[in-house]
């Protein structure tokens, strides 16, 4: 029997007859009383109806709805179940599903939906119920399909448009999410939660002015809303307007003095403004009111590292395990430096970014020296680069790490500085520490590059667009291009340039772009080996070039990531690296011009000495 036949068979079920002048009259009175907000009177009318006909299904369902509104969920289930026993109506299953959904019983809601669909025609409300249940089950793709079906049945269903946008955002389908939230705003304008979600998505798409405009619109609607002030400040932060962002966070705190979001964001922006004492004080305040605030501990740790207080910084960073993370779940204990690992097997695993892995893999020889057998678990793109690290027995993908048998310990790569109690004076900083590149790869790149008559300069102007601090680290290519020219050959090391930079790149004849032939990090390392200099922003290539011991010039924001410390033009981690920093004005043009002048000096020195053939 197909679904249509099942529906037909069920629709033949005849409800029990009611006494028109009795139960039905009391039921209609109850409906009028509900409409006027007199719920207690409605409940009394329902009981009068049941005194006349105890099997009056509409009344039983209405009592369930009244109990639902009173948050008496078990009572609601009892009334609605009695209604269904008397009459298999789809709307009663909708009531049942609603109660189950509020109880968090999403899997049962799906069964209720299926039963209701067998009984009668499709209903937008039923599909909405199914979508919400699937969200509860974290089946987001199926939930989106349900919300879209609601909109096919009722194109003006605001909640479906809104929930579809929110769920698409959770799936990372940002452009689609924004389209549905735009529809939601059209159907029911000036809903502040919708506006704030749209603003956050636009901010993530780097459509900053639009995001700021929406936040301001939300503020006009609810000028006393602290959350709006926080969201506005966040947009301004990503626009690098830190002083104005600070004003919005302070406005949020004036409205809601205990707002933890506002305090965290204020501490972050104070850090960017180098008002470190004030940032420390906010983190102390956050800890005083919630000793379990791991984000406050982590913020304090990063401040300490930035200021060179490594002992407090490395130990403080271990609090990151109290926060959501994607690190493999190992059964063996984590090694933190105290236990002997001689003749033990330890997995050293990536726990953050590609650049982090390259920077801290320098500690592997120190673990080898302790007599351990090392399995190195890295991100897949790094396997060809790191598989020949001296002293390791195996190099695997980090996704396989938790399944390795016969392991005694594990240690996240970013915890090795803590395990070795690293201070500024004890940073392991050899000139280079990565395995030498394959000679065949190097030869292939030499042939692609051609004659070596000019200074070969590799360039990277942009980092990972998904990095939280990308707006402070990356430089528009049009600005970066100020350093091009002179007696140098510029070779792009920039993988996947941003759309706006790609258009600029196509206009430029000064850059040789062979990045389509870079297959992995080992290829990039071989290419860098063929270069005289790498000029880069703070990204994984900076770490790769530094770890290879190649001359590297790194361009940094006014308040950079903690590893670069402050106010020095050398790197404590990479002996062959020179740092070029923004000043307080935070002007990239000024930094690029400084690099250009230094490059011209280097070219002049080279032309006055014998050239390499």
How does this model look, in words?
The chain is α/β, with parallel strands linked by helices and 613 residues long. Helices cover 54% and strands 8% of the residues. It has 30 helices and 10 strands. The strands form 2 sheets. It has a 6-stranded parallel sheet, sandwiched between helices. Strands 3-2-1-4 form a 4-stranded parallel sheet. Helix 27 (499-507) links the parallel strand 6 (488-492) and strand 7. Helix 6 runs parallel beside helix 8 (124-136) and helix 7 runs antiparallel to helix 8. It starts with a helix and ends in a 6-residue tail after the last helix. 39% of the residues are buried. Mean pLDDT is 91; it is low at 1-20.
Gap between N and C termini = 83 Å
Mean pLDDT, all residues? 91
Q: What percent of the residues sit in helical stretches (DSSP H or I)?
A: 40-55%
Q: Based on CA inertia axes, which overall geometry fits?
A: elongated
What's the alpha carbon Rg, rounded to whole Å?
A: 32 Å
Note poorly predicted spans.
1-20
Strand order of the largest sheet: 7-6-5-8-9-10
Major sheet summary line: 6 strands, parallel
What is the count of β-strands?
10
What portion of residues belong to β-strands?
Answer: 5-15%
Number of helices: 30
| Structural class assignment | alpha/beta
